[in-house]
Specification:
three-stranded antiparallel β-sheet; 3 strands
Length: about 70
């Protein structure tokens, strides 16, 4: 993976997938998808670490390629 993603980009992509912001605590945004009944926590940082990003994508059920298309 050559490009890193920011928290802002991931939140934007998840909103397009139907996730809504449930609440925010500090720099972490808690998002929920009512259709899939899935919750995801996204750190609102300039750059997400690789493991954190992959964990978010796994919970959301998308791949890195899907994320690039949504942004």
């Amino acid at each position: 993976m050559s490009k890193t993603f920011s928290g802002r980009e991931v939140v934007k992509a998840l909103r397009r997938l139907g996730f809504v912001v449930d609440h925010q605590r500090g720099s972490h945004i808690f998002m929920h998808n009512l259709d899939k009944n899935t919750s995801v926590v996204v750190p609102f940082h300039k750059e997400l670490k690789k493991g954190t990003l992959h964990s978010i994508l796994k919970k959301a059920g998308i791949t890195v390629a899907d994320l690039r298309k949504l942004i």
